[in-house]
UniProtKB/TrEMBL annotation:
Cofactor: FAD
Keywords: Cytoplasm, Disulfide bond, FAD, Flavoprotein, NAD, Nucleotide-binding, Oxidoreductase, Redox-active center
NCBIfam families recorded: lipoamide_DH (TIGR01350)
Identification of the protein by name: Dihydrolipoyl dehydrogenase
Amino acid sequence: MSQQFDVVVIGGGPGGYVAAIRAAQLGFATACIDAFKNPEGQPSLGGTCLNVGCIPSKALLQSSENFHAVQHDFAKHGISVEGAQMDVAKMLERKNGIIAKNAGGIAFLFKKNKVANIHGLGALKGRQGDKWVIEVSNDGAVVDTLEATHVIVATGSNPRQLPGLPTDNQLVLDNAGALALPAVPKRLGIIGAGVIGLEMGSVWKRLGAEVTVLEAMPTFLAAADQQIAKEAFKTLTKDTGLDIKLGVKIGEVKTGADSVSVSYELNGEATTTEFDKLIVSIGRIPNTQGLGAEAVGLALDERGFVVVDDHCRTNLPNVWAIGDVVRGPMLAHKASEEGVAVAERLAGQKPHVDFATIPWVIYTSPEIAWVGKTEEQLKAEGVEYKKGTSSFAANGRALGLGQAQGMVKLLACAKTDRILGVHMIGPMVSELISEAVVAMEFKASSEDIARIVHAHPTLSEVTHEAALAADKRALHG
């Protein structure tokens, strides 16, 4: 006898587990199927984000920043430290503890909200009457069968592989391998100057590795506002010490007994470089493996994404899809909001997810964050705009922190003053960007932020000053 549910969510990452919790809160009998296992072979909820992505990378970034501060920054505060050493095993143990705590927290929330927590790989098998049949397998063996009125596909994404170069997470690493290196490699190569490449490169550079980043695009951080991107390139190469090469054409990659050689062409010149470890971070692809999409006729586009409309409906009745497996930015917070929205639509509500106000963050040092349009986009679209910029260099709080690099840039409509985009590089801008998101959601003008009282001394004063500068009335610039 199959277990009966109103809603079955396939995937327990930030999109799936949040969708399941919200559906249960709204009174639906809900189950969540998730196949992820930790290195010990135990179920671990939270998907890529919690287990081998967003959360563990932030843990390692903080550890590496602390080690760097001991070596380079504490002396300025009058603190002398001799013989500082990094225990990589202890650092990884702390990281794994954070993962376990968060995964356990999701399991607790499932129990609290009466979500059935089912471990295994979920596959759509077809319909029986008005119910979808979902088969759950573990290590290739069928362990359960569920029936559901509604199915939410939240299967996420996988790392894109470099053609002809399989990832073994020994010499050639993806995001999971980059987060679990047992020792600091002397020579670390990274293919791809995206979020993962820059964050992982920063971690291992601070801990002593020589890091070379090879990027095919001629433009650094092409998705970001280029004034901010140029500032980021300068700080990441000059201060962090990453060797970032742009416009690289990757050739043959060979793995040896204990090293990897990468042949590439740069500015017409052929080079071969030997690395102890190589991280491949060239993007992610939607994960529909084992889902049974073809068997039930679930439509996928030419890139492998599940096809959905603006409300996350697929082409199949009562089948929805959210997060990395559908169109839009591959961001955990986007997936979560789509999950909430679908659950609320099932309950007859009318939620809304605005892609135009989804924030982006890169957790390098300094951090990079933005929301809305870049200056390049506004120019290309022929939009008349004005801009205001302000630096952290003279901000009292930033100087006190010893992190006075970077700036805030605000773009507003020249006619209406409505905020069109806000771009930041500097200390804790992952937190500061929320003010801009709220302002844009409420259709605020640059004058609105300029007239809001910001506490002193705070980092947020730089946002205030950028808003003032947009109206050519900066007080400290």
